[in-house]
Design a protein that fits this description.
D-amino Acid Aminotransferase, Chain A, domain 1, 7 helices, alpha+beta, about 230 residues, 8 strands, four-stranded antiparallel sheet
Length: about 230
């Protein structure tokens, strides 16, 4: 256990204390627990950034947003985007760790998606809701992409999740806004993020400091946008 904790020291040091009012698990069922990606003109958003701003590109995976909460190292609760308790079903999923070598409370966001590629880029619905997934567990996977209340940059967060045995999304980095159109074209041609059912690409600011500066509102993040 000491060896396991040693590998997680960097994450543990950077986890903030989660107050009840800030927890994504503090919402009543029926209210959306997760903020949406940035709203508005994504090109204008890109132009507002400094030229050397590091951006991470991830697949926008078609599936259901899921939140996981671990307390004292054990998977305590899982919710969907409507704050419905789906803990029992998620504990049955093979690629979700049932325990972590971390005693602090940690909350993680990811997406539950069908392993078989069923994406439809012409589908107006950006995310499909996976219904009755208790009967489809063999087809479903969980991909983690965010640690809440953590003071490390986005790439480091993904690496910490990987160390904890979570599946994480494929990523691409760029410091050049002009490159984003190239990546987008590669996605449209099926050359990028082809391992997943996708409805586009998500652009995220890597710097945690800049994420905090850009902030969020009651509906959406100001540091992550989707394009397609």
């Amino acid at each position: 256990m000491k060896e396991e904790n040693k590998g997680s020291d960097h994450l543990i040091r950077n986890l903030e204390r989660i107050s009840p009012e800030n927890s994504i698990f503090n919402y009543k069922s029926g209210k959306k627990a997760f903020l949406s990606l940035g709203q508005g003109n994504d090109r204008e958003w890109l132009r507002s950034l400094l030229p050397n701003t590091r951006i991470i590109l991830e697949p926008r995976i078609i599936g259901s947003s899921i939140g996981l909460q671990y307390i004292d190292g054990k998977l305590n609760k899982a919710i969907n985007e409507n704050s419905e308790d789906i803990t029992k079903s998620m504990k049955s999923l093979k690629n979700i760790p049932k325990s972590l070598p971390i005693k602090k409370r940690i909350e993680i966001k990811g997406v539950l998606y069908a392993n078989k590629n069923t994406s439809d880029k012409n589908n107006k619905t950006e995310f499909i809701e996976i219904q009755n997934f208790t009967t489809q567990l063999k087809r479903l996977r969980f991909c983690a992409f965010q640690i809440y209340h953590c003071n490390i940059n986005h790439f480091q967060s993904l690496q910490e999740l990987k160390k904890l045995n979570f599946e994480i999304p494929q990523t691409q980095f760029t410091n050049f806004i002009s490159d984003i159109e190239i990546y987008l074209q590669c996605w449209k041609e099926g050359k990028l993020f082809k391992s997943y059912p996708t409805s586009g690409i998500v652009m995220k600011i890597n710097s945690r400091k800049l994420q905090k500066y850009l902030g969020e509102n009651n509906l959406s993040l100001h540091w992550a946008y989707a394009i397609k």
